[in-house]
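Hey, weird one. I pasted the Response regulator transcription factor sequence into the form twice and got a warning about non-standard characters only the second time. First submission, copied straight from the form history:
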Amino acid sequence: MIGKTNQSSPSPLCAPNQKTPSEKATPASEQSENVGAIIARHKPLAWSILGLALCRAGLIVGSYGSYRHSDEGIYSDGVMLVALAVLAVLWLLIAITKCHLSRQVVRRIAFASIILEAFSLTMAGALVIGPPEMNVVGNHFLASTFCTLGGLACMSYWLRRARDCTAITAVIYSFGALFVSELLIFTSIFMENGISYFYAAVLVLLQFPCMLLARTKPLACDIKTLSNKGDFFNFTKNTMTSKAFLATICVSIGVLACADGFLRGYPDGSSIAFQPTTRLADLVLILAFCIAIIVFTCRQHHRVMTVGIFVTMEALACIALLCYSAWPDALDIGAIFTTNLNALLVGFSWYIILAFMSYGWRCPYYYAIAGWIVWLGCRGIARITLINVTAVSQNDLLMLAAVFTMIVISTQVAFVNFLNVRKFEAVPEEELTHQQKAVQTSPVVKIMGLDDHHESLADVRQATMRHNAEEVGKQFLLSEREVEVLSLYALGWTQKRVAEELFISPGTAHAHIKRIYAKTGLHSRQEILDYMEKYTS
């Protein structure tokens, strides 16, 4: 079920010992390319973007009531904590074994997750339109839990498909999916509550054709775009700054997520109901943010996804608090900005997870689950605290002070981190060694899977050979098993050792090698190595 290799199974054209995709050279003629042309180049990702959007739409309809309210209280963040506890078991398994889920396992998880999410939505719809005695708290909570668990697993699959991409591609992928999902969610608010669940179930099932069509298109890492200086994906002359940057930015996201959790239930923990006008305003504002972020990023505004996104999110949190205080009888006005803050956190978390998947050495699911735990877990804890702790929910002054404190801490952590990156970039090369070792051994960096001191030369060589075998497999239409055999056989392994590693018989290994020779037209191990050296990256 789980592969035992230590490589990160990079997608083709993205070898572990190569520069990150955002560092690839781009012709000078592309520097004058307009936004439309850049977006058009990402058309192959349309099915994957739609799949991610469909997944989120099903989750929001099933567990968040299509944002008819700021959330559904215990059915949103309460079930989120339960679902995260289940996913944390898989996270611990990957962390302890340092394994990578194979492609077959990933596909099976994705298929099962889609079915689980669709089933839970159908179950929720049946509870609403069925006999009243069925629509009890326990059944609704169970349906929401299954929907959340399936939705998070599906999101992890779609994000995994976009790993090793450039910064611009990550923005288009993340905020493009957020844009589409918001439109799909908005259409469901015009339906009866029970019907909207069945509508969402159909949307979720549409992920199946999206998966099949996406597999016929180029991967995200195949799309080249300009590098964006000073961004998460631009790892310049040393790896220390990128590790510190990614590790500490998660602290900032977690603290801001706590503030978001308090704001969603201001002031006493109850959900805030939207009026038609404020719900429409919420949609228009988030769509405008998505368009602006994509356009500014494509136009090479270098600080959009660092300083820019944090300033925007902190400003939304502050404006929400001001609106709550100014219009205590119309809390849905402040909820517009709270919901926009939450939506931007969704897109930004997707973007950060892609950065971790592209830079870290662990299984992509390790980073996806960790991302959900950091921001959704922190938000859920804050939200449930507000619902259950009377000392907080009945003391407006205490709550305001707590939220503003969280906003300040999040801002300080993020901005000090940005300043440190600039400071490290100015340090001479010979002075970096000691500082890099300090970051390398940091417990936070190790937990986040950004350390690389554990990788031996053999690990790197095996990962590189796996990459080369995948490229050869694409060129000669080798099967997945043939690619696995080729990657080990090219390392100099005997047929017997290859068979033992892959748990197949020696005869089967021999048959695979014969088919590899027949398909490639090569006749020896040395010819295979020569071909890889000449025609693969």
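That's the output from the first submission. The warning seems to come from a hidden character in my clipboard, not from the data itself. The beta strands are 2-3, 100-101.
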